[in-house]
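ok trying this again, last paste got cut off
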Amino acid sequence: MTQDFTDDMRTKLIAYLAAHRPLPAGLGAAIRLAYDGQLKDDVIDCMSPVLGRIAMRLQDAMPDDMRNRARYKALIPNMPGTGREREAERLAVLMDWLWTVVLPQLQPLAERHGFGAAWRHMCETKTARAAAAAGRAAAASYDAYASYYAAARAARAATDAADAADAADAADAAASYAVAVAVAVALAVAVAADAADAARKAFWKAVDPIGVLERMTYLDAKS
């Protein structure tokens, strides 16, 4: 039986977040401890799977200073209780962020390494076929930038999972999509790490991972 995330559980989670400075990796474990006292890293029953999975991966990937901002710590206690009834809407938010924010951040590097046109076409058309073509172009360009190929594969997987979200098993589609996007984000970070420190900071500011998690949590909020 699914139980709600009570005020007492939320209070425990807030206390945990306040006591852990800096906040370590392991968002799922922190929420789970407040929920039922178990040290597990899976998504609790009353929380959106797609939100939970992408939040865990983004928390691990984002820079320490971003992970420990008051803005993020204020968001975490509101993720439990989001439920599993609006996964398609959360998928749509995630999809838009992937195609219009994260993957386009790689465009300048794609231009420098000879596959800018294919990468731009993928971001504009947002199709699995274009993602596969961009991946092939990236892989053929330069081995050191094979992460582009993997990012394009992640984009293709994300497209397929998003299409599957209309199927009966939307929860599984949501989980698959979250993992695919997480891979794309991680690879974008890896590529950004090749740049100077100022460029990495600019990358994280541009993609604003906390912002997408806020939009997925507060679906009805005005942006």
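PB: full thing came through this time. The CA atoms of residues 115 and 137 lie 6 Å apart.
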